[in-house]
Design brief:
Elements lengths: L6 E4 L10 E6 L8 E6 L2 H4 L2 E5 L1 H5 L2 E4 L5 E4 L7 E9 L8 E6 L12 E5 L5 E4 L5 E4 L11 E4 L5 E4 L11 E4 L4 E4 L6 E3 L10 E5 L3
Amino acid sequence: MGGLADAEIVGDEIKIEFASVLGDVGDMNGDGYGDLMVSAPDADHDAGTAWLFSGAVLAEGGAIGLDEAMAVVTGEEEGMGLGTSLTSAGDLNMDGELDLLIGAAWTRLDRCDDVGSVTLWYGPISGNLLSDAADALILGDSAQEGQFGYAAAVTADGTVAIGAPMMEFGDDEAVVIEGVFGGSFEIGSAGGFSWYGEDTWGDGAVYVLHAGY
């Protein structure tokens, strides 16, 4: 991304860990520049906020304010920690646009803290958005404080891996989500999931999504 080293994104003068997570999310607006997402999971009483910046703006260099973000996503509930992970999801719905995954590892569910969640956004996105406007919500296991969504990454073949470092598994330790999906569902539920074999990464805490089905 040309000129990125000469640009500085300036956070508000408030007590948050601004830009504690960075995500190279690809060219989400189709202008030929790779875009950048930054987050502060502890913003707004730990609701969390993520800002998406145009690579073209970053390439111009200089100081860039938060009001110059193409999109701002804010957690709808205090304590959920939106922005613990940020990653491109590739083109999951095969519409020619890049999609986005945002983790919120401290999400509370059924009186259990730190269950965690991941929101899926079919690109492009713009404007000010609350996390409940996402195209899909994937929730961690409500019986565990697993911090689902604490980390996310994309492999070379376009597979998205989502980490839940505090989750304990049984014999089946990974899950595959095949095809286009939406709505809200919890991992381990019948809809949308098929269990397989052993934990590929050896840490017992990875879920995988495959695009292109």
